[in-house]
Amino acid sequence: MITAQPAPATGYQGFPVSISVSAASPPSGGPVPSGGPVAFIWYSNNVVISSSANNNGSQTDSGLNSAYGFTSGLTNYSASYKVVVTNLNGSVTSSPVALSVIIPPTVSIAFLRGWWIRPTTGWQPTQR
Predict the structure, then answer these.
(1) Which of 35, 47, 83, 112 falls 20 to 30 Å from 19 in CA-CA distance?
(2) Backbone angles phi, psi at 96, to 5 degrees
(3) pLDDT band for position 71 (50/70/90)?
(4) Which one of 2.60.40.10, 2.30.30.100, 1.10.3720.10, 3.20.14.10 gives the CATH number of domain 2-125?
(5) Rounded to an integer, what distance in angstroms lies between the CA atom of residue 29 and that of residue 62?
C-alpha cells in the first residue's frame, strides 16, 4: 500500500534531483494484500526505468527502492514519473507526478573600463 504518494519536484540542470514514494505491506484487507516486503518499479513517461545506472544519470537507490533520481539532472529528464509498488500478492500504482529539470538563471556583469558616469552630462571618458 502506498502511504505517501510521490510529489512533483523541480531541480536545476547539473544538480541532484529525485522523487520518492512511501509504501508498506498492509495488513490483510488493504489495497495490496499482506505479502511480505514491497518492491518498487519506476516509470518515466510510461516506460520502465532500468534498475541499474543508465547512461543519462544514476539512481539514488536503484529502481527497486522508494526513491529515483539523478546525481546531475539534465533538462531531458523532465517527464511524468510513476511507480508500481508490488509484493507477493499484488501491486498498486502511484499517481503520476512531474519531475522538471530547468536551466539555472545566469547573471552577466559587464564592466566598462575607462568610463564613468557624470550625473549631468552622461558618459565621459576618464582622464589619465
Answers:
(1) 35
(2) -70, 145
(3) confident
(4) 2.60.40.10
(5) 29
pLDDT of residue 125: 56
Q: What single letter denotes the amino acid at residue 33?
A: P
Higher pLDDT, 25 or 119: 25
Phi, psi angles (nearest 5°) of residue 75 = -60, -25
- Model confidence, pTM: 0.66
Q: Comparing 53 with 106, which gets the higher pLDDT? A: 106
